[in-house]
Amino acid sequence: MVNESSFLTMHNLQRRKENSEEYLIGRTDESNFVILPNIAIEIIDLYDQQLTTSDISKIMQERGIEVDVLDFAENLVNDLQFVYKVDGVIINDVVEDKSHFKNLSPTVSRLLFSNFAYFIYILFLLVGMCICISNTTFIPTYQDIFVFDSISSSIIFATLLGWILIFKHEFAHLMAAKSLGINSRIGLGHRLVFPVVETDMSNIVLLPHNKRYRALLAGMAWDGALFGIGVVFLLLNTIGIEMNIVLLNIIKLINLHCVLAIAFQFMFYLETDMYYVFTTYFKCNNLLHNTRLYIRKLTKRISKEQTIELQNIDQYEKKIMQKYVWFYLLGVIWAIGIFIIVSIPALLKFLSIAIMKALHSNILSIAFWDALIFIAISSIPTGILIYSWIKTWKSNRVSNRPISLD
């Protein structure tokens, strides 16, 4: 495909200087980025000047730089897929922009995630926390899940409201990214054994580290503010502004969800919001992936290619990784333990109750349809988890060759 006389036409590649020796570069249409040395960037720029592989090889030789330009060109075409055309023939086509809510106003997004807006969000959270400290009856408990007298109806409602609030969290990420000029999309995924809704903001890596926090913390900011507002409403109810009991129960449920949502984000042995805040602050490019490679090395399950990849990790990140790995292992064991000991038995128990209820009820009765709806809703998270596992497994089957400049 590529030979010494080939002309390579690149995609619209975006880049950001990592340090004096490296650049982060990639395609924004498919959010594919990699860190390359300066010499690789220079070769790409020379191809953009419509020089052939042979021309570039001669330039490198004249400068005394030993580099296999042809081999690197093949990497650009096949592995990185940075090349749009080879000798005028389309090799890697442009990927359609599948980002969501592309018509959102950047002005409104910037307003909702300005420094002043963040101040208001934090203020609401602090007010809510102070009220809870002064009156512990406002602290959410597991009993707040029961909005109605009917247990099944309460669980169904809590599940539906939970997914709405999760979407709200992810929509905050999307809007905050939009305020920074980054398009993103909301999709389904998993964190170990937890099904999740997630916002793909991969192109945010093009921004300097200190500008990313606005988008990374957006979901937690809205969760915290909503919790604070909810606590204020509960306080108002106790001082004379009485509210409907169902409305109060819904507010309590929302508060419970917000607290659990924020707590989940601190499980940063998974790819949660706080994990990305942590890696952004310490400037780790791929901490979780590298940590898993390190575990493979410890368990002697590492391939030759993975060993080379592990050896090429920056020493600074290696030091962080070697401390993070133990926290990661303990966290994973804890999460799997909770999933096996608590989540699965609880789900099976509720499902068995619902199935028995459906079997012993008339098909036209409310009890039958109540049980059936509960079974359907309870199956959604499991379906998402299985879907995400399969998607990840298929993705991991594709292995790229190491990028060569030798």
UniProtKB/TrEMBL annotation:
Sorted UniProt keywords: Membrane, Transmembrane, Transmembrane helix
Origin: domain of life: Bacteria
Ranges that cross the membrane: 118-139, 145-166, 215-239, 245-270, 325-348, 368-390
Name under which the protein is recorded: PqqD family protein
